[in-house]
Design a protein that fits this description.
360 residues; mainly beta; Methylamine Dehydrogenase, Chain H; 4-stranded antiparallel β-sheet; 2 helices; disordered N terminus
Length: 360
């Protein structure tokens, strides 16, 4: 997806000096672009504490708490991961995917932090989806690949049991030789898959309700509720729900719009984040310029907030708020129950990419 460029009104952009003074949030990791190029790094208060220039766009990231390292993933079809020392800001490793593979831009660690799991495209196997396994204690050496039994795995997360990975299967087949062109437009098979780490077997499958409803981004609550967002791959608008909830053993259930007036036109969910109590989730919708707040208990929409080119979303338990980014350099706070978003910071000339990670 190409980043959108917008000309914002004064009210949409807000006042940069006022934004810079409000730093009531935990530092975040993100990829971003500006006039100087593509960057990955750590944003603290009103500045980049760590910033590294890379030759292409990054996508998601994670904070490896046990090792105090920042891990950044290339956007598909990139083949690089970057490992940065969280204390010194030094680049420790640049990891390349194995020959015949590329990354889809997401990863997560095992419960003990020993292993890193990544979603990958097995190019050599005609685009089969794969989960890479990397040993963090051995300089992130790739030690194995596990089949996810689906094409186009995107975001994944470790379930609360510490034994299972939940994987959003986008269903979209691409190969580097044809760029980002969808090669199986008539036969997508998006789904939510659960993979047992010990055996490498898929232990549960939930097909998307429509073959063009590509499941891409997800988050998991402390008690195992999965919320997953979709990106429709057909004629727009689809009029289909784009955010779904799932619990192991149950059905994939569409979140209810309730009494909120919401009509997507571009059908694209970029980020999904759940709070630490499993009460609320947010989803960013950059192409429709909104952010949605969801009630997880009742599985319904609570409120829609306007935010032009909304991008990343992450919950910040230190300040009981969701942090949101956008393509215009803003970091905003969403506090459930409050009627509007609150400005946190402003990175002039910066286009935040679609994901944020908390340094916590």
């Amino acid at each position: 997806m190409q980043r959108r460029h917008f000309i914002l009104s004064a009210t949409a952009l807000l006042c940069a000096p006022a934004l810079a003074k409000s730093a009531n949030f935990t530092p975040v990791l993100s990829a971003a672009s500006d006039t100087a190029g593509k960057h990955i790094g750590l944003w603290r208060d009103d500045h980049w504490q760590i910033s590294k220039t890379i030759p292409h766009r990054g996508h998601d990231s994670l904070f490896h708490r046990q090792r105090q390292e920042l891990v950044f993933f290339s956007r598909r079809p990139g083949r690089e991961m970057y490992i940065i020392d969280a204390r010194s800001g030094a680049l420790r490793h640049t990891i390349s995917s194995n020959a015949g593979y590329h990354y889809y831009g997401h990863g997560c660690t095992s419960a003990d932090g020993r292993f890193l799991y990544t979603t990958e495209n097995n190019i050599a196997d005609n685009g089969a989806g794969s989960i890479g396994v990397y040993d963090c204690e051995q300089s992130y050496q790739c030690i194995a690949h596990m089949s996810c039994d689906g094409i186009g795995p995107h975001e994944l997360a470790l379930m609360p049991d510490g034994k299972t990975l939940v994987i959003a299967i986008g269903g979209i087949k691409t190969l580097p030789a044809s760029g980002r062109e969808t090669l199986n437009a008539d036969s997508l098979a998006p789904a939510l898959h659960y993979l047992d780490i010990a055996s490498g077997e898929i232990v549960e499958r939930q097909a998307a309700p429509h073959f063009q409803l590509s499941l891409r981004h997800l988050d998991v609550s402390p008690d195992g509720q999965v919320v997953v967002g979709a990106q429709f791959q057909g004629s727009l608008p689809s009029r289909l729900p784009l955010v779904y909830s799932h619990r192991r053993g149950g059905k994939l259930t569409a979140m209810d719009y309730g009494e909120q007036h919401l009509q997507f036109k571009k059908d694209y969910i970029a980020s999904v984040s759940i709070d630490d109590r499993g009460e609320h989730a947010v989803s960013s919708c950059p192409r429709d310029n909104v952010v949605c707040l969801w009630d997880l208990k009742h599985q319904k929409l609570l409120k829609v907030y306007p935010l032009r080119d909304s991008a990343g979303a992450i919950y910040d338990p230190n300040f009981t708020q969701f942090i949101l980014s956008n393509g215009s350099g803003q970091l905003m706070a969403l506090k459930p129950g409050q009627p509007t978003l609150t400005p946190l910071a402003y990175a002039a000339g910066t286009q935040w990419d679609n994901h944020l990670t908390l340094l916590s």
